[in-house]
Design goal:
This is GTP 3',8-cyclase. There is one protein chain. The chain is α/β, with parallel strands linked by helices. It has one domain: Aldolase class I (TIM Barrel, Alpha-Beta Barrel), CATH 3.20.20.70. About 30% of the residues lie in helices and about 15% in strands. The protein has a twelve-stranded mixed sheet with strand order 7-8-9-6-5-4-3-2-1-10-11-12. A hairpin with a 4-residue loop joins strand 10 and strand 11. Helix 1 runs parallel beside helix 2, helix 1 packs across helix 9 and helix 3 packs parallel to helix 5. The radius of gyration is 19 Å and the shape is globular. About 40% of the residues are buried. S-adenosylmethionine (SAM) binds next to strand 3 and strand 5. One iron/sulfur cluster binds next to loops.
Length: about 325
C-alpha cells in the first residue's frame, strides 16, 4: 500500500486527530467567549475512530496526536487512547491538553498507552495565567505536569503562545523552571485565525526575538530530525529541559510539514489553514470501506498546497484553533 505523500515530496506519518470542539477554558487567543455549541454536535465515535486509524495506519501513519477543543473532556478519552495505542502499527500516541484533568488521570492515561503529552501553560505567573486562559487553574495544571513526569511519559512538553504585552516578560521564569526539570518547552508564535484579527494585531510577537536571546546565552540549535516537523529545537548543556520554537511566519516553515489533521466531525484538513475540510465520515462507517477511504486520502493529497497564506492574512476556514486542534 503506498504511503501518503504530496506533490512536493513531503511524507505524512503523523495524524492530528481532534475528538471534540468543546473546551472548558476561554483562552483569549482561541475561545475568548468560551465554547459556543452549534446545535448538538456529534463527534466521531469509537467505531469511526477505529476505522479512521486503521486506514491511516495502512498508508503509513505511525504517530497520532489526540487534540480538541479539550480532548480530555470526552468521557471516553481513556478508551480512545487505548484504541489508538492498541493498533499494532501506531508507535506513538500523544495528546495536547490544557491540563485541568491531568493530576488525577496521568497514570490512567499512561496505562492506556499514552506516551507523550503536551500541556498548555501560557504563563508561570498565576495571575497572568488567569488573565490569558480565563481560568484560575494554574496550580492544578502544574500539579498535573508533576503527575505526568512521575507517571513516566516519554516526553512532557509545555506549550506557551508568545503574546506581546502579556507573557513577553516570562522567558527568565520559564528558563529557570526547565534548568532542573526535563521539560520540552515550546514557544508558539500567535497565528491569525478568522475570529482573531484584532487580537493578532495587538499581541503577535516574533519567535525570532526569543531565538536571538537563546543563541546569545549559550543555547544551540539541534540538528532537525524528520520527527520535529516544522519546529526548531534548542538545547543547553546546563539545562535539563529543551526549547522548541514554532514560527509559522518564517520562510520555509512549511517545507518540513509532516502532519495531516482530521476534525472532530471527520473532516480531513490538509493544512491548519486550509480553505475547506474534506468529509471522510461517510467512509468511516464500516471496515469494508477502507479501500475507498484510502483512495480518497491519496486523491486529496494532490490538493495540499506548498505553504499557508498567513502572510497575506488568509486564514482559511479556521475560525479558531479549537475547531481543528491546532
Ligand atoms: N502553522 C502550524 N502550526 C502548528 C503546526 N503544528 C503545530 N502547530 C502549532 O503548535 C501548537 C502546539 O502543537 P502541539 O499540539 O503541542 O503539537 P506539536 O508540538 O506541534 O507536535 P509534536 O511535534 O507532535 O510535538 C499547535 O496547536 C499549533 O498552534 C503546523 O503544522 N503548522
Ligand atoms: C487548540 S489547543 C487544543 C488542545 C488543548 N485544549 C490545549 O489548549 O492544549 C492546542 C494548542 O493550540 C494553541 N493555540 C490556540 N490558538 C492559537 C493561536 N491563535 N496561535 C497559536 N497557537 C494557538 C494553544 O495554545 C494550544 O497549545
Ligand atoms: S487553547 Fe485549548 S484550552 Fe485554550 S481555549 Fe483553545 S482549545 Fe481551549
Ligand atoms: S501551516 Fe499548513 S502546510 Fe504549513 S506546516 Fe502547518 S499544516 Fe503544514
Amino acid at each position: 500500500m503506498s504511503l501518503l505523500q504530496d506533490d512536493f515530496g513531503r511524507k505524512f506519518q503523523y495524524l492530528r486527530m481532534s475528538v471534540t470542539d468543546v473546551c472548558n477554558f476561554k483562552c483569549s487567543y482561541c475561545l475568548p467567549d468560551g465554547y459556543r455549541p452549534d446545535g448538538k454536535p456529534k463527534f466521531l465515535n469509537l467505531n469511526e475512530i477505529e476505522n479512521l486509524i486503521s486506514a491511516f495506519a495502512k498508508v503509513g501513519t505511525r504517530k497520532v496526536r489526540i487534540t480538541g477543543g479539550e480532548p480530555t473532556l470526552r468521557k471516553d478519552f481513556t478508551d480512545i487512547v487505548r484504541l489508538v495505542a492498541d493498533h499494532q502499527d501506531i508507535r506513538t500516541v500523544a495528546t495536547t491538553t490544557n491540563g485541568y484533568r491531568l493530576a488525577q488521570h496521568a497514570k490512567e492515561w499512561y496505562d492506556a498507552g499514552l506516551r507523550r503529552i503536551n500541556v498548555s501553560v501560557d504563563s508561570l505567573d498565576p495571575r497572568m495565567f488567569y488573565q490569558i486562559t480565563g481560568e484560575n487553574k494554574f496550580d492544578e495544571v502544574m500539579r498535573g505536569i508533576d503527575a505526568a513526569l512521575e507517571a513516566g511519559f516519554e516526553r512532557v512538553k509545555v506549550n506557551a503562545v508568545l503574546l506581546k504585552d502579556l507573557n513577553d516578560k516570562d522567558l527568565p521564569a520559564f528558563l529557570n523552571w526547565i534548568k532542573g526539570t526535563p521539560i520540552d518547552l515550546r514557544f508558539i508564535e500567535l497565528m491569525e485565525t478568522g475570529l482573531g484579527h484584532d487580537y493578532f494585531k495587538a499581541h503577535h510577537l516574533a519567535g525570532a526575538d526569543i531565538r536571538a536571546q537563546l543563541l546569545q546565552s549559550g543555547w544551540s540549535k539541534d540538528i532537525s530530525s524528520s520527527e520535529d516537523g516544522p519546529a526548531q529545537n534548542f538545547s543547553h548543556p546546563d539545562y535539563q529541559g529543551r526549547i522548541g520554537l514554532i514560527m509559522p511566519y518564517e520562510q520555509n516553515f512549511c517545507a518540513s510539514c509532516n502532519r495531516l489533521r482530521v476534525s472532530a466531525k471527520g473532516k480531513l484538513h490538509l493544512c491548519l489553514f486550509t480553505e475547506s475540510g474534506v468529509d471522510l465520515r461517510d467512509l468511516l462507517q464500516s471496515p469494508e470501506q477502507q479501500g475507498e477511504l484510502i483512495e480518497r486520502l491519496h486523491q486529496q493529497l494532490h490538493n495540499k498546497k506548498e505553504t499557508h497564506y498567513l502572510h497575506q492574512g488568509v486564514t482559511g476556514v479556521t475560525q479558531h484553533l479549537a475547531s481543528i486542534g491546532g
